[in-house]
Design goal:
The complex is a heterodimer of chains A (194) and B (194).
Chain A lengths: L4 E14 L2 E17 L11 H22 L8 E8 L5 H8 L4 H8 L8 E5 L6 E7 L10 E5 L9 E9 L24
Parallel strand pairs in A: 3-4
Antiparallel strand pairs in A: 1-2, 2-7, 3-5, 3-7, 5-6
Helix pairs in contact in A: 1-2, 1-3
Chain B lengths: L5 E11 L11 E11 L13 H19 L9 E8 L5 H5 L2 H12 L7 E6 L6 E7 L10 E5 L9 E9 L24
Parallel strand pairs in B: 3-4
Antiparallel strand pairs in B: 1-2, 2-7, 3-5, 3-7, 5-6
The chains are: A alpha+beta (194), B alpha+beta (194).
């Protein structure tokens, strides 16, 4: 493995009440987050292939962790998202190298598919910085009930020479969706959008 | 008797491989279980609140079980523990103190005959307030390698009329513990202190 991982954190959220209404079954989502050494911290590198490969490794590892934390089959995941926070001595482009070229394929492999774009966010920040991981339906990006986000943060990361990489998965949409739009029952599932 | 209304449960597990020193043969795991519940005493002064400690016992047990499961399920693997509470702004600090008995009772029940006091902290805070939950060895408070803490928090809790109650368990010492003091293998285990 190319990734030098200091820490892996998994978070499971289960919502049983929202707006005073009981949510049954509960709305559940999970994030799996790795804190890794940034091999390019403090330097300018034209070629970021090493981070691209690390992205592929983490796409598999973190997807497995997140699904396992929910205790479900990968195929039961309905929405997904990804995000990265680069420590002070790194570049935003380092987050892009991790997230965009190769992370998605192994992530989708664990879920048994996913036609939609994996929504993402990235930032540079200090220890404890909050990452808002966007969430969208994995087969049809326009499913309105599944537009969501999950905030994660790790108190002691990223150090200046580290990167926090996070994946989130959900087995449902928002706890009490009622603003219309495309529903998951209406998904055609061919273009990743509808 | 007051009904326990749980809005949200969040389980967080950290797996720590190193902290810039030698990679540990066995990673340290730290876990937290947080429940966000209605505070039945919010918004007014209630003299008689102690009965709520018994009402909280089933929640404590459920949280302790879920936390142990998230850490692998083996009670013998748990070496440190702690607990804490955050009271929403319409409550008082004393409402947080209601968690001492049921939180401690639940972890002892799940972990067998743990002898040491469960380290704890509490405060009144806004949604997203972070709490540093102290952690000490489950059988001997003075074990220096196991003095630790885990930062917890839930971004949208506690709201004004809510309580956030939390349990923490760990599977070992700080990852590079090396400041001497009483060691875990020197515990006499009679008084909960040494």
């Amino acid at each position: 493995m190319n990734a030098e991982i200091r820490k892996i954190v998994t978070i499971v959220e289960e919502v049983t009440q929202e707006g005073g209404q009981t949510i049954d079954p509960p709305s559940r989502r999970a994030a799996a987050i790795a804190v890794i050494r940034n091999p390019f911290a403090g330097t300018y590198a034209e070629n970021l292939d090493l981070l691209i490969e690390i992205g592929a490794e983490l796409g598999d590892l973190l997807a497995r962790r997140a699904v396992a934390a929910l205790g479900i089959e990968g195929s039961s995941v309905e929405s997904y998202g990804k995000a990265a926070a680069v420590g002070a001595d790194g570049e935003l482009e380092h987050a892009a190298a991790l997230l965009h070229p190769k992370l998605g394929a192994p992530f989708r492999q664990v879920l048994g598919g996913g036609a939609a774009l994996v929504p993402s966010s990235k930032k540079r920040g200090g220890l404890g910085v909050a990452l808002d991981i966007p969430l969208g339906h994995k087969d049809a990006a326009f499913v309105r009930s599944h537009f969501d986000g999950m905030e994660v943060r790790i108190a002691d990361a990223p150090r200046a020479g580290e990167i926090v990489v996070a994946l989130a998965v959900s087995e449902s949409g928002r706890p009490a969706p009622r603003v219309g739009g495309l529903t998951k029952q209406e998904i055609i599932g061919k273009d990743g959008l509808r | 008797m007051a009904e326990i209304i749980t809005r949200k449960t969040v389980i967080t597990v950290e797996e720590i491989f190193h902290e810039f020193g030698p990679v540990a043969a066995t990673p340290l795991r730290r876990g937290a279980a947080c429940a966000v519940i209605e505070n039945p005493f919010a918004g007014r002064y209630v003299e008689d609140i102690a009965f709520f400690m018994d009402d909280l016992k089933p929640l404590g047990l459920a949280l302790a079980r879920r936390l142990l499961d998230a850490l692998g399920g083996d009670p013998a693997a748990i070496e440190g523990y702690g607990k804490g509470a955050i009271v929403g702004e319409a409550g008082e600090l004393e409402h947080g103190a209601l968690w001492h008995v049921p939180g401690g009772y639940a972890m002892r029940e799940i972990l067998g005959d743990a002898k040491a006091i469960v380290a704890s902290t509490k405060k009144v805070g806004a949604p997203g307030t972070r709490l540093d939950i102290p952690v000490t060895h489950i059988n001997a408070s003075y074990v220096r390698s196991h003095f630790d803490a885990m930062e917890i928090g839930v971004v949208d809790a506690p709201r004004a009329h809510e309580l956030l109650v939390a349990l923490v368990m760990t599977t070992g010492s700080r990852i590079h513990a090396r400041v001497g003091g009483l060691k875990a293998d020197e515990i006499r285990g009679e008084d909960g202190l040494r």
